[in-house]
């Protein structure tokens, strides 16, 4: 038979991609849904990039915003490219589509489908003070007890609380989160996907429903959001006019873990039982444990932890740590002043300079906004060794960032385990673009004294694609089948504590 091709639209804060996942028919013949056959092999999924593009924050209408029209144009081109690629690879075109992106941000979309204003980015300063004013209505302890979500300044609820467009918007204007907006543009259907809904800060902890008290605190009502949909359910087919225009079939769009971190953690290649320890490493480093229930204690709140919804009734108990953003924004500053920076060269230089000289706190909200990042990191750096007063070269600065990240990962993973009352797991999985950073993986293994398993790099796209595969019945619907498929499909690298280089493993 022909292989099955699926398309993932995956938007990150600095780049986007349309990926094709190719599932070859299993030699054992298990593409029939596999209800209950617990030992069915799941085959392999090949990952192919159909289209990659940049994503850049810019000022529009006085706010730091996403260029959503440009992104939509790239997505359209990407889908056409994906269809061609799927055919070249021997498939009968793409059979379904799933969309994921960064969390919390939304568009307001009027009754006729017209967007009202820009999609303002979560790093925009409009939310300064918003969390404090919402806290005067519902205090922070109660917010956490109701939702399990950490009070980050950018949560959708605080954005909505200061959104001056809501008053003048037409009645019933639903706020569509970014992936839900793209799904709406593809299908004409309005839904709010559950994993990303949890990042609004208004979903009731552990329930598939909004918290009326939190909606009120944000100054919105339930009608402001489209109906909830769970990851794995079908939204509907691509609109026929659009399908014709793009040269694709009227294939189903499937709700996946539309919060990129939910899809990335779904694709963590863990085989062990017990809580999985992960870092989803991209613009942010999201570090924590996958659990069956949220940790809603006051101590968890005070420690800044959050409980985000995952695919299949899981919870990610995690901490947001500024991640590769610190490096990419520093590079942006050096390049603005004329330097040309190659990331691999920079990391090699960082590995060669003496370590343990400087530290920063990558959980400090002072690093949230863009601009002049290299200067801000150098200003914030504490001296812990050597006799220089501040990091001077890009290599020194990056060394400081990576060592600080590794130590923060150690402290936050220990905190997560303490707060969730679990022992430290035997290994930590690092997935996402940052898993390519071998120096950081080694520093992390050294700091924690446990094994770090790096990869897959494209975890988000893999989580998106494998859930589509399961929804279509192409792999069995049983616990573990997705991670089994991921493990069979990717190369991983293992970093043992105390060593200086990784060893390959399958
Ligand atoms: C990572 C991410 C993260 C959120 C942030 C807004 O891309 O989705 O999980 O906290 O962006």
UniProtKB/TrEMBL annotation:
Location of the Carbohydrate kinase FGGY N-terminal domain: 60-266
SUPFAM superfamilies tied to this protein: Actin-like ATPase domain
Entry keywords, A to Z: ATP-binding, Kinase, Nucleotide-binding, Rhamnose metabolism, Transferase
CDD domains: ASKHA_NBD_FGGY_RhaB-like
Pfam assignment, any one: FGGY_N
Family named by the database record: Belongs to the FGGY kinase family.
Annotated protein name in UniProt: Rhamnulokinase
Residue ranges annotated for the Carbohydrate kinase FGGY C-terminal domain, each copy included: 278-471
Region ranges (Disordered): 23-43
């Amino acid at each position: 038979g022909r292989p099955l091709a699926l398309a993932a639209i995956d938007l990150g804060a600095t780049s986007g991609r349309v990926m094709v996942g190719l599932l070859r028919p299993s030699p054992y013949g298990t593409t029939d849904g596999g209800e209950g056959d617990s030992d069915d092999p799941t085959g392999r999924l090949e990952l192919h990039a159909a289209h990659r593009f940049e994503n850049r924050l810019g000022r529009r209408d006085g706010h730091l915003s996403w260029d959503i029209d440009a992104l939509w144009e790239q997505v359209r081109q990407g889908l056409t490219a994906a269809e061609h690629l799927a055919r070249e690879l021997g498939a009968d075109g793409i059979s379904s589509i799933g969309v994921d992106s960064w969390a919390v941000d939304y568009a307001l979309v009027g009754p006729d489908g017209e967007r009202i204003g820009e999609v303002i980015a979560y790093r925009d300063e409009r939310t300064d003070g918003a969390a404090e004013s919402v806290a005067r209505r519902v205090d922070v302890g109660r917010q956490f007890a109701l939702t399990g979500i950490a009070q980050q300044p950018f949560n959708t609820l605080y954005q909505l609380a200061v959104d001056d467009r809501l008053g003048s918007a037409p009645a019933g204007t639903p706020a569509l989160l970014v992936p839900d907006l793209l799904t709406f543009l593809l299908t004409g259907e309005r839904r709010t996907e559950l994993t990303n809904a949890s990042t609004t800060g208004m979903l009731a902890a552990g329930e598939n429903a909004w918290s009326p008290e939190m909606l009120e605190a944000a100054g919105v009502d339930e009608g402001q959001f489209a109906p909830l949909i769970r990851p794995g359910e079908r939204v509907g087919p691509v609109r026929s006019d659009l399908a014709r225009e793009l040269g694709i079939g009227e294939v189903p769009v499937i709700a996946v873990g539309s919060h990129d971190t939910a899809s990335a953690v779904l694709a963590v290649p863990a085989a062990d039982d017990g809580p999985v320890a992960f870092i989803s490493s991209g613009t942010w480093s999201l570090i924590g444990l996958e659990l069956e229930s949220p940790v809603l204690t006051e101590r968890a709140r005070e420690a800044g932890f959050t409980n985000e919804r995952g695919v299949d009734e899981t919870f990610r108990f995690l901490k947001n740590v500024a991640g590769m953003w610190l490096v990419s924004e520093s590079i942006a500053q050096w390049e603005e002043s004329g330097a040309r920076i190659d990331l691999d060269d920079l990391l090699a230089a960082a590995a060669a300079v003496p370590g343990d000289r400087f530290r920063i706190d990558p959980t400090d909200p002072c690093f949230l906004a863009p601009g002049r990042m290299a200067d801000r990191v150098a200003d914030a750096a504490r001296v812990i060794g050597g006799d220089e007063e501040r990091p001077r070269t890009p290599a020194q600065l990056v060394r400081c960032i990576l060592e600080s990240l590794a130590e923060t990962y150690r402290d936050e993973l220990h905190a997560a385990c303490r707060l969730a009352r679990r022992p430290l797991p035997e290994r930590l999985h690092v997935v996402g673009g940052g898993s390519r950073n071998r120096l950081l993986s080694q520093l992390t293994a050294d700091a924690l004294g446990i094994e770090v398993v790096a990869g897959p790099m494209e975890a988000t796209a893999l989580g998106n694609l494998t859930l589509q595969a399961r929804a279509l019945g192409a792999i069995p619907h049983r616990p573990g089948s997705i991670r089994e498929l991921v493990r069979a499909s990717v190369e991983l690298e293992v970093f043992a504590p105390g060593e200086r280089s990784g060893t390959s493993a399958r």
